[in-house]
Amino acid sequence: MWADVSSTLGLLPAFSTVTSNHPLGLSHTGGRPPIRRPASPFLSMQRFTGFAVLFLLLSTASAGFAQGVARNEDWSSITLAGSTLKAQPPLLGERDDYPDFTRELIRVEWRAGDPIDLYVILPKQVQKAPVILYLYGFPSETDRFQNEDFCKLLAKNGFAAVGFVSALTGQRYHDRPIKEWFVSELQESIGSSVHDVEMILNYLDMRGDVDMNCVGMFGEGSGAAIAVLAAAGDSRIKAIDLLNLWGDWPDWLAKSSVVPDQERADYLKSDFLKKVERLDPVEWLSKLKIPVRLQYLYSGLSTPKAAQVRLEKSLSSQAVFVPEAEALRAYRSSSGDRFFDWIKDQARRAQR
Q1: Structure pTM?
Q2: Cβ neighbours of residue 222 under 8 Å, at least 6 residues apart?
């Protein structure tokens, strides 16, 4: 079915080597990934609008972005309480029709200068399908959601799927100096992405074509951290599936291979740690009363062992922790094609 199902699923080590035919755009083995300014698929689709008009719109948006975001959004909160985000009308960029599903590329925006490319995959012949949100971690992109076989897997068993990237990631990393990146702006990267999940759920509710009583979320790496916080703040999420979870920020920032050694000291200062302490999955995992699965398919790379142990100990009693050897064995036995069955089963149970 796939030339490399593990690459398509994005379950290889989060910092493995980029190759030109890799569908996920995963980055290198350690330290800060090379800066890339990926173009949004929307740029090629919307050229008929004229680059001059586009430039004018983006320039105006960027000016508003610099002045408005910090004042109107509280990145330290896991909910939109106290924030004044207002969604602009969504734009349809493309709709593809396949035998088993349809795929839409939607542009949504609630912050000036920060549009989000949202992939919505809907199974055929299913009304109000249960839906899973998929959020892969920094520094991934949305290329995987353009892969027909991957989308077919997501839509298997009558499920809708929604894919996007977090703040300061992929097509959302632009108009910033190179020194500002996901980790240096960790409060914004995590906090604003948690708010994005709530806004995306609002958008899906407005669409009316998925079952909002049956919502799950899969997160990998930083995306898993965002999933924990989003589920803690929004009861519409009925189950979360966490792979290679980031968190326990003091240990993670001190030892993670993601953090360049020359920058590490800056992130261990008390003022930096203070800004992200309310955004630490360690603080929220024990409060979750929904089904949770946590597993690491490899250890000691992006999330150091000390942080993994503390995150595991923070799980509430109903959560499932899958040891690495068992997780790898189960993944390899099915070539990865049943990897998402757990989150689908948990979300489906919310219908009963």
Answers
A1: 0.86
A2: 137, 138, 166, 182, 189, 190, 246
Phi, psi for 221 (deg, rounded to 5): 60, -125
Ranking 105-114, 195-204, 301-310 by mean pLDDT, the lowest is 301-310
Q: What is the sign, positive or negative, of the torsion defined by CA atoms of 72, 239, 340, 332?
A: positive
Domain count, the chain: 1
Residue 239: which CATH number?
3.40.50.1820
CA distance 62 to 65: 5
Instruction: Give residue 205's domain range.
Output: 5-349
Buried b (16+ CB within 10 A) or exposed e, 196-220: bbbbbbbbbeeeeebbbebbbbbbb
> Which pLDDT score, from 0 to 100, does residue 24 have?
31
Maximum distance among all Cα pairs of the chain, rounded to whole angstroms: 56
Task: Quick: pLDDT tens for 18-56.
Answer: 323 333 333 333 556 555 555 566 655 543 343 333 333
Give bridge partners of residue 240 from the DSSP assignment: 217, 292
Closest among 107, 84, 87, 83 to 95, alpha carbons compared: 107
Report the 10 Å Cβ neighbour count for 113: 20
Checking if the pLDDT of 57 tops 70, the result is no
In terms of Cβ atoms closer than 10 Å to its own Cβ (0-12, 13-18, 19+), residue 254 is middle
Looking at residue 337, its pLDDT comes to 86
